[in-house]
């Protein structure tokens, strides 16, 4: 039995684990990824991370935090007992308190050709590069939305890509308005300027989005609406997404209330279920700094340091993070045109090969599941369910265990520290 179990070893989860361990309590962090760091600090070697990220992982380990990677939580018996697939074996893990830091995933909206090899998510491209995929000399088109475009474009160029275009679907006015709201955060503007300097040779267009990807066996062309004009780019990779959506499935299984697709939390980051806290992007998309602050609040609250969690400075920082998240959501909301890109022939559920023509928007998500198997494949609706909710207004899928696709192997190991 641990005092606190944290699900997710991104900035939020690490921050919470540190706050718990600093108060002398036993904490275990589980993450399905191969190394700690979550999405933003995905790495192959610790030394490649920015100093503050490395310091955070090292601090957690020095405090005795156990970080078990390749450990996916597949079910929750109760807030005090989770079921985990750990390297091929199913285990149960009891805990006194539970902190959910399960992050967010990309929202991918179907368009003709989006299932071609070489068409990936914007964050997915970043993840591929960080995992060692070579882009040297590859022609890349990036079409997405939000602040994530800049670091990904810079990473692609730094990885040797020939970046042809960065297209932001939000309007110029929305982007300028968002930029202006950052004047109080000059470090964020400076960071954006640094990224832009790295990909300065590539054009950056607002009010522009992909309409089709074409090719045989692999993407060869991207057709992009560039400010109202259709332009075709010969390319090797297309990275696209329509923003991020909180990963709330585990919270839902536990019975936590969600609002607007995010886990609902109070000022202590407590959920509607006693003994369960939620932090970071699963409570709404607002960036790594907010995730770290929320982690500290929840970590303190989960071990009874309520006064510390209530500290004015922490609460103010967290509230600023929430405000930033609301501005982000307003400025980079997916435009209506993105919801209309799929033609009758476009696959909308890539796991089960269901095409747009196979579903009737007047159905419910459940009817569509039963009649066409949309959302019944390996991703369990993580991609198509989110897309159908956006395109047809269907209520979101109800999460059910097991989460993901656990494999029950012959061999197993005890949960142990797998961090470097
Ligand atoms: C694909 C992608 C790429 C991104 N790249 C960048 C970037 O380059 N720069 C940037 O500024 N921001 C980036 N972001 C945004 C960034 O992730 C967030 O701002 C920040 O990392 C949020 O931290 P977090 O701890 O809330 O979530 P995350 O960092 O996403 O961490 C959540 C962790 O929970 C784990 N997890 C989820 N469910 C389970 C489960 N059932 N069992 C076990 N583990 C689980 C995941 O493996 C993940 O490691 C990216 C987001 C995404 C989705």
**Helix/strand/pairing class, anyone?**
alpha/beta
Q: Strand percentage, roughly?
A: 15-25%
Roughly how many Å is the radius of gyration?
21 Å
N-end to C-end Cα span: 24 Å
Count of the separate structural domains: 3
How many alpha or pi helices? Answer: 12
Helix content: 25-40%
Largest sheet: 7 strands, mixed
Bound molecules: flavin-adenine dinucleotide
Shape type: globular
CATH topology of the largest domain: FAD/NAD(P)-binding domain
The CATH first-level class of the largest domain comes to Alpha Beta
CATH architecture of the largest domain: 3-Layer(bba) Sandwich
CATH superfamily of the largest domain: FAD/NAD(P)-binding domain
Global mean pLDDT: 93
Would you identify the regions where 5 or more consecutive residues have pLDDT less than 50? 410-415
Structure summary, number of beta strands: 21
In short:
This protein is α/β, with parallel strands linked by helices and 420 residues long. It is built from twelve helices and 21 strands. It folds into three domains: 189 residues, FAD/NAD(P)-binding domain (3-Layer(bba) Sandwich), CATH 3.50.50; 132 residues, FAD/NAD(P)-binding domain, CATH 3.50.50.60; 56 residues, no CATH class.
């Amino acid at each position: 039995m641990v005092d606190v179990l944290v699900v997710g070893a991104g900035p939020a989860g690490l921050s919470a684990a540190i706050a718990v361990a600093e108060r002398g309590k036993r904490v275990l962090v589980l993450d399905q990824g191969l190394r700690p760091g979550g999405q933003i600090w995905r790495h192959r070697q610790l030394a490649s991370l920015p100093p503050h990220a490395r310091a955070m992982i090292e601090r957690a380990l020095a405090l005795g935090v156990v970080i078990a990677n390749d450990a996916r939580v597949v079910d929750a018996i109760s807030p005090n007992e989770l079921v985990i697939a750990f390297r091929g074996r199913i285990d149960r893990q009891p805990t006194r308190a539970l902190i959910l830091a399960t992050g967010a995933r990309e929202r991918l909206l179907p368009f003709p050709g989006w299932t071609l090899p070489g068409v990936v998510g914007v964050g997915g491209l970043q993840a591929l590069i960080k995992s060692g995929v070579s882009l040297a000399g590859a022609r890349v088109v990036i079409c997405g939305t939000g602040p994530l475009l800049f670091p990904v474009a810079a990473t692609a160029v730094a990885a040797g890509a020939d970046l042809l275009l960065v297209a932001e679907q939000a309007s110029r006015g929305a982007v300028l308005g968002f930029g202006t709201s950052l004047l109080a955060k000059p470090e964020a503007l400076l960071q954006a300027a640094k990224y832009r300097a790295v990909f300065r040779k590539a054009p950056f267009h607002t009010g522009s989005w992909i309409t089709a990807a074409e090719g045989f066996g692999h993407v060869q062309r991207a057709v992009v609406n560039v400010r109202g004009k259709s332009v075709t780019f010969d390319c090797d990779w297309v990275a696209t997404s329509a923003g991020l959506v909180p990963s709330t499935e585990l919270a839902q299984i536990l019975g936590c209330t969600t609002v607007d697709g995010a886990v609902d939390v109070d000022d202590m980051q407590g959920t509607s279920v006693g003994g369960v806290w939620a932090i970071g992007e699963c409570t709404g998309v607002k960036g790594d700094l907010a995730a770290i602050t929320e982690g500290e609040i929840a970590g303190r609250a989960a071990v009874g340091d309520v006064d510390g969690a209530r500290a004015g400075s922490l609460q103010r920082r967290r509230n600023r993070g929430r405000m930033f998240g609301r501005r982000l959501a307003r400025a980079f909301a997916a435009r209506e045109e993105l919801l209309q890109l799929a033609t009758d022939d476009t696959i909308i559920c890539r796991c089960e090969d269901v095409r747009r023509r196979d579903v009737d928007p007047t159905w419910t998500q459940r009817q569509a599941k039963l009649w066409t198997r949309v959302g019944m494949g390996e991703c369990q609706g993580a991609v198509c369910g989110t897309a159908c909710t956006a395109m047809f207004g269907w209520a979101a899928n109800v999460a059910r265990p097991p989460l993901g696709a656990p494999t029950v192997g012959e061999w197993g190991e005890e949960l142990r520290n797998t961090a470097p």
